[in-house]
Structures are given as C-alpha cells and as structure tokens.
C-alpha cells in the first residue's frame, strides 16, 4: 500500500450516508484536536491495544529519519481507552490529510460513557502499509522516539502529551507508560 492513503480513504465509506458520525481517537487525536466537533466524550473500544509500531515520516519524523507513533494491534480481551468525537463528514477532508501516512479508516463499535454503543470510525495503520515499522523492544522504540522530530514537533512530546491525557483520566496503558519512563530517563 502506498504511503499516502488519502485517495483510498475517500472511497472506503460513503460518509454522507451516515446519520451521525463518531470518530474514536486513541493517539494524538485525544490531545490534539485541530478539527471541529459537535460533541466529545471519553470512550473505549475493545479487542485492540495501542502500540508505537507506526512510522511517522510527516509529523514526528522525516522521510529520512522516521519517528514512531501509535497504531492499534488486535488484542483479544483488551480494552483501549480514548476519546470519541461526533463530527460532520466535512472534517474528514482535514483528518484524511492529517492521518495520510498509512492510516485507513475502519468502522468499529465505540462504547460511550452513557453505556451506549455507536458505530464509529478509527484510523488504523496495519502492517501492510508502507510506513509501518512494527514491533521492537521498549528500549529501541524509546531511542528512536528520543532521536526523532518532524514538522509537528519532537516525537517524545507525542508520548508525553498522550501519557498526560491518559493519566488525567486515571487510565493506565503499560506500553505508553513504559516508553514514557524510558524517555524520561534519557532526557
Ligand atoms: C489516533 O490518534 O486515533 C490516530 C493516531 C494518531 O494520529 O496519533
């Protein structure tokens, strides 16, 4: 699959057919909200875990020295906490551009805080995308993140801002917190 997923995403769902559109963010979409939304609340999805296995050539790294950002990996029995946004279909023009480095839109059930489950969308970067980096040790992931930066800033700030947002909601994500701890020790 090509690096730039914008054209593919446009043909994946017909967003104008949706009565309401919910987007679930699990990474930078939790704390960097640079799009309009109608409603927002904390939420979770099941069957996935966050992992710093996706390369970032455009935001937190460069084509020569990619950084590492989050994607989701299937993980039976796991619950991934994040933030749900009710949005208009127009915002996907911007979001598809923002998430263009290997992420595809997928439909997924989102569990909202009032026990409602809604059909929603996530941006997921699967192992067959050109920017995928895959599994590595916590030390190696942290070292790559520590040494990377791109147009959106230092790669380590992606980790720190996400960890702070999770902590604010009393949420624990061992993978994220382990990488944060390793980065702090390097700083
Ligand atoms: C997300 O936040 O939901 C997708 C990954 C990212 O943009 O960090």
Q: Return the string of H and E elements.
A: HEHEEHEEHEEHH
Q: How many β strands by DSSP?
A: 7
Oligomer: single chain
**What is the percent of helical residues?**
25-40%
Report the sheet-strand fraction.
25-35%
Instruction: Please name the fourth-level CATH homologous superfamily of one domain.
Output: Gamma-glutamyl cyclotransferase-like
CATH architecture of one domain: Roll
Task: List the defining traits of the structure above.
187 residues, two-stranded antiparallel ribbon, binds succinic acid, alpha+beta, single chain, globular, Hypothetical upf0131 protein ytfp, 6 helices, 5-stranded mixed β-sheet
What does this structure look like?
With 187 residues, this protein is of the alpha+beta class. It has a domain at 6-135: Gamma-glutamyl cyclotransferase-like (Hypothetical upf0131 protein ytfp, Roll). The chain is built from six helices and seven strands, in the order αβαββαββαββαα. The chain has helices at residues 6-10, 28-31, 91-98, 138-146, 155-168, 174-186, and strands spanning 21-25, 39-56, 67-87, 104-111, 117-124, 149-150, 153-154. The chain has a five-stranded mixed beta sheet. Strands 6-7 form a two-stranded antiparallel ribbon. Helix 4 (138-146) crosses helix 6 (174-186) and helix 5 (155-168) packs across helix 6 (174-186). It is globular and about 45 Å long. It starts with 5 loop residues before the first helix and ends with a helix. The mean pLDDT is 96. Bound molecules: succinic acid.
